[in-house]
Specification:
Two copies of one chain form a homodimer.
Chain A lengths: L7 H10 L19 E2 L14 H11 L11 H12 L17 H14 L10 E4 L2 H12 L8 E7 L5 H7 L3 E6 L10 H12 L3 E8 L11 H14 L2 E5 L16 H6 L3 H4 L4 E6 L13 E6 L3 H12 L5 H11 L9 H27 L4 E2 L8 E2 L2 E2 L3 H10 L3 H13 L1 E2 L1 E2 L12 E4 L4 H21 L2
Parallel strand pairs in A: 1-12, 3-4, 3-5, 5-6, 6-7
Antiparallel strand pairs in A: 2-8, 7-8, 9-11, 10-14, 13-14
Helix pairs in contact in A: 1-6, 2-3, 2-12, 4-12, 13-16
Catalytic activity (chains A, B): L-alanine + 2-oxoglutarate = pyruvate + L-glutamate
Organism (chains A, B): Dicentrarchus labrax (European seabass)
EC number (chains A, B): 2.6.1.2
Chain lengths: 469, 469
């Protein structure tokens, strides 16, 4: 077997440039901390956030139906579990999904949720495709779009910064990342001129076939307004690009006066010229902020205006291995939470509210804290779970990193991990290049954990700056 | 977006030839049965088999840790759940796996299980790669091997019949299926001369790079003996082929005097000439017979003698989307069941025994029953969950199928579904071609369900034969 396929060459390059700090521990050395805190990815439960009780109770009953008789569990938990079990083959989560595309009842629930969310713009179960998280669904789409080499290679217009898993995913699937810069000074807004410029540049180098949007922005925390979204939709329509809208943090907008609008809704409110032509795929996931069920790995995409053959193909890609049942059930609970009057309604609502309050307060607190540090500059986040401050490093430190063959923000994160036991993400993982350094920090954590991280960051940061007076 | 990528052309052809009967219902017509019974795939829980209590109890507690206080659950269930939660990031199944390749504790448990199973031939955690079922892991491997077109296209020597999901998987990944026939008259044994002949034929058409083995055989129920396995290993060594060993039914051998030997064990007992050179990947899954947890989607592969870069690449393919946590925990329970003296030991052992007894008795009963039908001939199964009888159909029925543009075994299964509400698998899904017709039938079902299926099959079958006197 060949040792590495052609498409991994780029991955290797990427791995070399952005060595994950976790790989770089000096073996066996004594550390001045007891445990490692990882705030590099959006993994709230690892950071100590609690799961939503209703979700876990329903899933536990589905797994072990003897609990249906357990009176200490709320009635609506047991009723929901009973209903969900009824939607499973043989009444068991241990059977393959009833169809190879998933459980029809869950398709229906998701479509109803989207229809409600978008104020009546209708969603159809046959356009919903399940997968193990939004990365997996995106990977399916990219595999389908990938073709060509050099100037004919499929390219995707990609925001910089983008979600940190995206560059590697594009590379793996043989799709070229064609960057468009988000405007840091304007709260990471998307700029239409920049988009046109980026497309022009891309056209000389590959065949751009899609534009990727992360809204609410990962890792920027930006929330797009309707005007921007309409511009993007017109741009995609004019240029014949598929619109890939990652909307995983739709449930976690906390910025004053901001609200989440889905690309689907905006598209359908722009009239038939657009709503019947623009190819849109939007992604959502149970790893989102308020559910935070990253370990279960579940998500869906909604596919709009695609050739039916594409839709069928995406469904059939699941076909050889039907999607896992439990994440689908978790998804059903996410899109169909307890209603007012249900026994679990109060607890559920409190838990969701507590999560969003923590998130909002943490984001504000951390942003102010970071902006008080010399050489750090942080745009306030309006949504999502990340802060993404820029890092102005002394030239000597940049030089040192160059000599070590790593990016300076990677070196910074690596040292922080080695010295303080906190794992941050480096901006180069988010597609940031040159001397435009950033760090990425998930702020959905218990406030005490966040304080600890911030305190360690301050002392480390000041020490670094002090090393190069 | 292009409507279908190049590689799906074959899939379309395949889909047309082997139309899944479930797609062919006449809409809205009244049926002489109340519900559809699906025995086409190995999905015991859908057919009504119960899950193993210990597995479900442990997973339910992991999902809803308040159950740790539930005294009605056995102590070893709660202790195991506590231990497994300790191996999860943040002590929660809702966090991403601790490493992007999975939970280290589970890697270790699986390696220890393999070492025990193979009488001390050691297995190493770093060679274990998790995935959502054996199809997904195989898909990763095939993607890595796929290259070329026409005479340079990667080919895999594939048994006919093979697992019914395999032809489509090969096609999807752009790998050519190069058939070698199993010897039906000899209980579906593998024949070395046939293997050589198949390789010779394949070499003119593509670049064969691997041989796929299903042992215990899916759908044949054949169990390979050591001599055959040694021949296959020597063949792979001489011809420079990677050995892909699907060993999912290793826990369900019931034929008198038969036992499962892993390819790993046989390889390592053949001396260093082979054990240090032959590239072997073996697959296992929690969907196997005694666990039957198909809906959870979990499995692993063990990778032997591969270039470390391949191993790293296969692990990194998971990297952009860490594997789901719950299936890993189910896998841990599968490879590490209760020990004698543990509170759950008796129940666990009884449940496993009950499953295997049902399986063995059903297989024998169904085989005798099928052999009593005119125009049907069934080899006895020694393992696994399927029977795979051949079907001698009247020439008129074959002619009729030809006119309808489907294979005759597909037409047979389709009619059986429409008229009797039972979904069988057709041999053409297992790679069988020409007029060599077969049906596939999962016999791991409650005995009463099996009896019902058999009775319906008899009356349908006799009616079909009667239509063409």
């Amino acid at each position: 077997m060949k040792s590495t396929p052609g498409s991994t060459v780029g991955v290797e390059k990427y791995n070399q440039a952005c060595v994950k700090p976790t790989l770089c521990f000096s073996q066996g050395a004594k550390k001045p901390f007891k445990k490692v805190t990882d705030v590099s990815s959006g993994d709230p439960q690892r950071a100590g956030m609690s799961p939503i009780s209703f979700v876990r109770q329903v899933l536990a009953v589905c797994l072990y139906p003897q609990l249906l008789k357990e009176k200490s569990l709320p009635l609506d938990v047991r009723q929901r579990a009973q209903k969900l079990l009824g939607s499973c083959g043989g009444g068991s989560v241990g059977s393959y999904s009833k169809t190879s595309c998933g459980i029809p009842h869950v398709h229906k629930s998701v479509a109803e949720f989207i229809t409600r969310r978008d104020g009546g713009v209708s969603s159809h179960p046959e356009n919903i495709i399940f997968s193990s998280g939004s990365q997996k669904t995106l990977s399916l789409v990219l595999h389908l779009m990938a073709s060509g080499e050099g100037e004919t290679q499929t390219g995707v217009l990609t925001p910089v910064p983008c979600p940190h898993t995206l560059p590697m995913l594009l590379d793996e699937t043989g799709v070229a990342l064609m960057p468009y810069q988000l405007m840091e000074g304007r709260g990471w807004a998307l700029d239409l001129d920049e988009l046109h410029q980026a497309l022009k540049t891309a056209r000389g180098r590959c065949e751009p076939r899609a534009i990727y949007i992360s809204n609410p922005g990962n890792p920027t925390g930006h929330v797009q307004d309707r005007k921007t979204m309409e511009e993007v939709i017109r741009f995609a329509a004019t240029e014949g690009l598929v619109l890939l809208a990652e909307e995983v943090y739709q449930d976690s907008v906390f910025g004053q006066g901001r609200e989440f609008l889905s690309y689907k809704k905006v598209l359908f409110e722009m009239g038939k010229k657009y709503s019947e032509t623009v190819e849109l795929i939007s992604f959502n996931s149970i790893s989102s902020a308020s559910m935070g069920e990253c370990g279960l790995r579940g998500g869906y995409m909604e596919v709009i205006n695609m050739d039916p053959a594409v839709n069928n193909y995406l469904r059939s890609m699941q076909g050889t291995s039907s999607p896992p049942v439990l994440p689908q059930l978790a998804l059903e609970v996410m899109v169909n939470p307890p209603s007012p009057g249900d026994p679990s309604y109060e607890t559920y609502t409190q838990e969701i509210r507590r999560t969003l309050t923590t998130l909002s307060q943490n984001a504000q607190r951390a942003c102010e804290f970071l902006n008080d540090l010399p050489g750090m500059n942080c745009q306030p986040a309006m949504a999502g779970v990340f802060l993404y401050p820029s890092l102005h490093l002394p030239p000597q430190m940049i030089e040192e990193a160059k000599m070590l063959g790593v990016e300076a923000d990677v070196l910074y994160c690596q040292r922080f991990l080695e010295e303080e036991g906190v794992c941050l993400g480096s901006g180069c993982e988010n597609g940031q290049e040159d001397q435009n350094y950033h760090i990425r920090l998930c702020v959905l954590a218990p406030p005490a954990t966040l304080e600890e991280v911030l305190a360690r960051l301050r002392s480390f940061h000041l020490l670094q700056l002090g090393r190069f007076p």
